[in-house]
UniProtKB/TrEMBL annotation:
<keyword id="KW-0479">Metal-binding</keyword>
<keyword id="KW-1133">Transmembrane helix</keyword>
<feature type="domain" description="Cytochrome c">
    <location>
        <begin position="77"/>
        <end position="210"/>
    </location>
</feature>
<feature type="binding site" description="covalent">
    <location>
        <position position="213"/>
    </location>
    <ligand>
        <name>heme c</name>
    </ligand>
</feature>
<keyword id="KW-0349">Heme</keyword>
<comment type="similarity">
    <text>Belongs to the cytochrome c family.</text>
</comment>
<feature type="binding site" description="covalent">
    <location>
        <position position="94"/>
    </location>
    <ligand>
        <name>heme c</name>
    </ligand>
</feature>
<feature type="binding site" description="covalent">
    <location>
        <position position="90"/>
    </location>
    <ligand>
        <name>heme c</name>
    </ligand>
</feature>
<dbReference type="GO" id="GO:0046872">
    <property type="term" value="F:metal ion binding"/>
</dbReference>
<dbReference type="InterPro" id="IPR009056">
    <property type="entry name" value="Cyt_c-like_dom"/>
</dbReference>
<keyword id="KW-0496">Mitochondrion</keyword>
<keyword id="KW-0408">Iron</keyword>
<keyword id="KW-0813">Transport</keyword>
<dbReference type="InterPro" id="IPR002326">
    <property type="entry name" value="Cyt_c1"/>
</dbReference>
<keyword id="KW-0249">Electron transport</keyword>
<dbReference type="InterPro" id="IPR021157">
    <property type="entry name" value="Cyt_c1_TM_anchor_C"/>
</dbReference>
<keyword id="KW-0812">Transmembrane</keyword>
Amino acid sequence: GRESERCASQAMAGSRAAMAYRLAQRLRPTQSLLAPAVAAGAAVAYATASNVSASDVVHPPKQPWDFQGFMSSYDAASVRRGHQVYTQVCASCHGLARIAYRNLVDVCYSEEEVKAMAEDTDVIDGPNDEGEMFERPGKLSDYLPSPYPNEEAARYANNGAYPPDLSLIMKARHNGPDYVFALLVGYKDPPAGIAARETQYYNPYFPGAWIGMPPPLNDGAVEYDDGTPATATQMAKDVCTFLTWAAEPEADERKLMGVKWMITLTVLFGFTWYYKRVRWAPIKTRRLELYQ
């Protein structure tokens, strides 16, 4: 009985090993033929991507942003000026759908200022008791309004181009603040031999180098409330600071929480180390003697 079962299991294992060997022999020529083809295809794809990346994209220069760093925070004055630039320059084409008026409170405006700002905006709400939509003054819980009712209207008003929402633009682009800053101040005349386009503008920092958005910033386009000279570079810096804050309104709070946790864990580690030394060190070094 047991001897026959053992022989049967050995025979089955041998047949499985033989089948695996024959399958490997069949696949070996195919693998040897496919391996060079796969390697060549990967090399061509990598070379093509590298050529496109190197020739069509101009990397923006690195800027010294005040808000970057573990212990740094947003400059409230710069965030306020950036919101002013967004409201007077960018909001006519770009939305900020993820930011509500309440998010601005105690960041760059007081609650009274934000309430007055929201009440100046008419918001479509409803339906009412009669089943109809109606307009009402905005309130703190409302989100910033979009300049267009839908994508089709936005494309129609911008010669087919769709202005993106700016709520997460700093996260959606590699090195977001540097890229947006370079894009805003990087408009130039096209190089010699390249004809200008009627409804597009040359900007080497934009993929493809041609963008449908005209140069948005000019010196003096905005009059800052605090008297800061509104140069194009200053406005670009401030609006980049504001948009970076809009992408992460909780960044300062998260950094502060991280510092608190690091302090707490450091103190707990000190207590743990002391307890281990006082409580367990005598036990670990105690000499044990066995008596017979």
